[in-house]
Amino acid sequence: MRRLLVAGNWKMNTVRKTAEALASGVASGAKPHLATVDVLVCPPFPYLVPVAAALAGSGVSLGAQNVWHEPKGAFTGETSADMLLDAGCSHVLIGHSERRHVLREPDDLINRKVRAAIGKGLHAVLCVGELPDERSSGRTQAVLDRQMESGLAGVEAGDFGKLTIAYEPVWAIGTGVTATPEQAQQAHDHLRKWVAARYNPEVAKALRILYGGSVTAKDAKNLFEQADVDGGLVGGASLEAEKFVPIIEAAAAVTASGK
Ligand code: PGA
After folding, report:
1. Any atom of ligand 1 within 6 Å of the Cβ of 246
2. Ligand 1 centre from 193 Cα, in Å?
3. Between 3.30.470.20, 3.60.15.10, 3.40.50.300, 3.20.20.70, what CATH number should domain 5-256 receive?
4. Which residue has the CA at smallest separation from atom 2 of ligand 1?
5. Ligand 1 centre from 194 Cα, in Å?
6. How far is the CA of 232 from the centre of ligand 1 (A)?
7. DSSP output for 110-142
8. Assessment of whether the complete model's pTM goes beyond 0.85
9. Which of 199, 108, 111, 197 is nearest to 161 (CA)?
C-alpha cells in the first residue's frame, strides 16, 4: 500500500532562525504520526544544513528545491546532487512550475536533473501540471503526457523507488484556488494510467502521486481521501507549523480510516 507523504515547499521564505524554528515545530507535530505518514520539508539552500540539524533523529525527511545535473565544476550558482546529499537531503523537487515558468527551465533540462538525482541516490519529486489556458482549452492531459514523457526519458522501471510525481496545476499554486478532489483524482488517475502503459502496472501502483496547489488543512482530508492522491506538496500552508501539522494530521486520519 502507498503511504501518504506530506511535503512542505518553503520556496524562497524563512531566515535561518525561522527556518530552524519551523523545522523543530514540524518535527514535534509530526512525531505522533510518523508511524503511518511520511513527512518532508524543503527549505531554501542556505538553511539545508541548519534545518538538517534541527530535524536530526526526528524521522522528518529533508529535501532541496532544485539541483543541477552536472557532478561538479564551472556552474556558477548551481548545486550538485552530491552536495545535497552531503547537506543531509534525501529528496529534491525537480521541475516545479515556478522553475518551469518563471525560470524558464525546459523539459530536457528537467529530465537531466531527474536522471542525475536518481543516479546519485536522491529521491526525485518531479512536478508536473498545466497552465490555466491549457486546462480551459482541454489540453490538460496532453500537457501532462508531454511533461511525463520528457521528464522521465531514460528513467527505467527499476528507478521508480526513487521517484515521486507531484501534480500541481499552475492555476492552483499560490492562488487560493485548490483543485476540487474530483479534478485532482482525475489528473492523478490519468498520470497513474500513463505510468502503467509506459512502464508497467506494478510500478504505477507503487508510485506516489502528490497533489499540490493551495492545499490547506481545510481541504487536505477530502483530497487525500481520493484513491490516487497519495499526499500533498504544500507551499503557503507549510510556512507555519500551526498550519502544516494539521495537514499531517489529516493524512494520518485518512490513513487510520483505512485508505
Ligand atoms: P501553494 O504552493 O501550496 O502555496 O499553492 C504549492 C507549491 O507550489 O508546491
Report:
1. no
2. 25
3. 3.20.20.70
4. 235
5. 24
6. 9
7. HHHHHHHHHHHTPEEEEEE---HHHHHTT-HHH
8. yes
9. 199
What are the pLDDT tens digits along the chain (259 aa)?
799 999 999 999 999 999 999 999 999 999 999 999 999 999 999 999 999 999 999 999 999 999 999 999 999 999 999 999 999 999 999 999 999 999 999 999 999 999 999 999 999 999 999 999 999 999 999 999 999 999 999 999 999 999 999 999 999 999 999 999 999 999 999 999 999 999 999 999 999 999 999 999 999 999 999 999 999 999 999 999 999 999 999 999 999 999 8
Among protein residues, the one whose CA lies closest to atom 9 of ligand 1: 235
Q: Which residues are catalytic?
A: 96, 168
Q: Give the ranges where the chain is alpha helix by DSSP (H).
A: 16-30, 48-55, 81-86, 97, 107-120, 132-136, 140-151, 181-198, 201-206, 217-224, 241-256
Identify the residue whose cell numbers are 499531517.
248
Domain ranges of the chain: 5-256
Cell 490513513 identifies what position? 255
For the CA of 173, the closest atom of ligand 1 is: 5
**For residues 53 and 33, is the Cβ–Cβ distance under 8 A?**
no
On the 0-12 / 13-18 / 19+ scale of CB atoms within 10 A, 91 is buried
> What residues form DSSP beta bridges with 163?
124
Ligand 1, residues 5, 9, 13, 219: which to mutate, most atoms within 8 A of Cβ? 9
